[in-house]
Amino acid sequence: xxxxxxxxxxxxxxxxxxxxxxxxxxxxxxxxxxxxxxxxxxxxxxxxxxxxxxxxxxxxxxxxxxxxxxxxxxxxxxxxxxxxxxxxxxxxxxxxxxxxxxxxxxxxxxxxxxxxxxxxxxxxxxxxxxxxxxxxxxxxxxxxxxxxxxxxxxxxxxxxxxxxxxxxxxxxxxxxxxxxxxxxxxxxxxxxxxxxxxxxxxxxxxxxxxxxxxxxxxxxxxxxxxxxxxxxxxxxxxxxxxxxxxxxxxxxxxxxxxxxxxxxxxxxxxxxxxxxxxxx
Length: 280
Fold this sequence. Notes:
This protein has seven helices and ten strands. The protein is an alpha+beta fold. The chain has a seven-stranded mixed sheet with strand order 1-2-3-9-7-8-10. It has a three-stranded antiparallel sheet with strand order 4-5-6. The longest helix is centred in the N-terminal third of the chain and has 43 residues, at 2-44.
């Protein structure tokens, strides 16, 4: 009985070993066949230089300068403000004439001239009806223009802009009113200058009271504050003025020219009121 049992176990073991060996052989044979097929396929493949090129995918070009992406419209920079070039045309006894060569938004040339009386001739302290000389004698303003050859410039003007400014003494309200009255008085005087039959526009700019720190925190004499009471006129020439020039553009061009100008003897930004043309 024990012999039969041992023989049965041995037969089962041998059968199992044979099954495993057969399965392993079949697996190795299958892998060998697959390798041969792969080698045959590679052998039949054409050389690399004869292969069909793989279709390439077209990439979008790099965005042009000014583009954030291919879906964003170009960024167009704002055009710079028209430039103003200045040059001192004439510097005489008691006055300076400065010419500004600028142009309007449509590119039309525009010549501005600024007539500025120097410290020796300024508004009389506390008055809006008289200009005085270095020893405080009242000066006839129109005669002053005539004797210095300045009246001819005014006669050829198409637009006249008169400025009013007051020094730092006194209250703000009273000095701003005084500055406005001075601008109007200048316009009144210049209305008597012939325009040779052509039309002329008159504007005023009330700059108000001088408000710089070097004045408000100190006690200054009237002589020391006299440069704050300048007599200033800006005008255009008929020969260099665009026909369609509007008041708003004239205002912008004058303000810009005075802002970038040098040696003007005064700074509009040191006064209390915003630069603005009135009248016309």
